[in-house]
From TrEMBL:
UniProt keyword Transmembrane, yes or no: yes
Keyword Repeat listed: yes
Broad class of the protein's primary localization: mitochondrion
Alphabetically ordered keywords of this record: Membrane, Mitochondrion, Repeat, Transmembrane, Transmembrane helix, Transport
InterPro entries: MCP, MCP_dom_sf, MCP_transmembrane, Mitochondrial_Carrier
Membrane topology: Multi-pass membrane protein
Protein name as it appears in the record: Uncharacterized protein
Pfam families in UniProt: Mito_carr
Length: 332
């Protein structure tokens, strides 16, 4: 369990760096309103951020989710693997959906304040050049300052944990879909039905596919969460009020706003997260197997009396060692 946490931590950092620019575009598009529309679409948002804020503009507020997502991935890997003990067939679609939902509900309590900080830092200084941004006084000086001010203004429940209900509503179905989607992909793509026998490029495609599926079933909740967490002027009384007002003023399409960069983000994020996790886990498992083999060899060579095994007890075929299942992880 501790190793799953460590591997997930490292994989989470890698995936966050790879997909964060798309996440910034997603949040910018989600939080803009029709009365204050800055971007006409995903491509326009990319171009304007690059021109006005430089490449560093894509990485505003990344310090919080970089380590936050790493911790979340570690928690999800650990909880999901531990939850498999509740089922006789832990690799069935039902078991994967339930264990994914459990993992999603647990990590939401960590994810919610992290995304609150991330969202508010991402929308600071929109359109400002890098030099001007560093010289301008902003509401939040960084992740810690954002958490402190959120707590001082609204307390822990309504300040720091603002948007928790929407985070739960998003992550429970998202993770419940993610793990079965990965199994579906492996079953239909791998020549042997096991992920260890897939080439690396298919693992990359599998991570992108499963990430896209997970976001598709939960994306409207993510839009409401981002808008609710981003507002600072008490525009919404709650998440339900946020959903109703958004629907009335901007139509149903508001719940799909930013879906394209979100989908694009899922490709590098999940494509990098899984191979890193798989590489670390397989490397460790291989080294452990080598250690076990050397221990067996050492024990055999120090035996003073030969052990004679009757021919009738010898196996007719040598069975191959069953490979451990490695499941990829989605990043926020």
């Amino acid at each position: 369990m501790a190793l799953d946490f460590g591997f997930g931590f490292i994989a989470g950092v890698t995936g966050t760096v790879a997909g964060y620019p798309f996440d910034t575009v997603k949040v910018r598009l989600q939080t803009q309103t029709l009365s204050h529309r800055l971007y006409s679409g995903s491509l326009d948002c990319f171009i304007k951020i690059a021109k006005q804020e430089s490449v560093l503009g894509f990485y505003k507020g990344m310090s919080s989710p970089m380590f936050g997502v790493a911790i979340i991935n570690g928690v999800v890997f650990s909880v999901q693997n531990a939850s498999k003990n509740l089922f006789d067939d832990p690799d069935s679609y039902k078991a994967l959906a339930v264990t994914g939902a459990i993992a999603g509900s647990v990590q939401a309590f960590i994810c919610s304040p992290i995304e609150l900080v991330k969202t508010r830092l991402q929308i600071q200084g929109i359109g400002q050049q890098r030099k001007l941004f560093t010289l301008t006084t902003h509401l939040y000086n960084g992740p810690i300052d954002c958490l402190k001010k959120s707590y001082n203004r609204r307390g822990f429940r309504h300040g720091v944990m603002r948007g928790l209900s929407m985070t739960l509503a998003r992550d429970i179905p998202s993770f419940a879909a993610y793990f079965p989607a990965w199994k579906f992909f492996v079953t239909h793509v791998s020549p042997t039905g096991r992920e260890v026998d897939m080439p690396m490029y298919m693992s990359l495609l599998g991570g992108a596919f499963t990430g896209t599926v997970a976001w598709t079933v939960s994306y409207p909740f993510d839009v409401i969460k981002s808008r609710y967490q981003a507002e600072k002027d008490h525009v919404y009384k709650g998440v339900w009020d946020c959903a109703v007002k958004s629907l009335r003023t901007e139509g149903w399409r508001v719940f799909t706003r930013g879906f394209l960069p979100c989908t694009l983000r899922a490709i590098p994020t999940n494509a990098f997260t899984y191979p890193v996790y798989a590489l670390l886990k397989q490397t460790f498992d291989s080294s452990q197997d080598d250690d076990d083999s050397s221990m067996i060899t050492k024990t055999a060579t120090t035996t003073t009396k030969p052990v004679i095994i009757p021919q009738s007890l010898l196996p007719t075929e040598v069975s191959s060692t069953k490979a451990k299942s490695i499941t990829p992880m989605q990043s926020i």
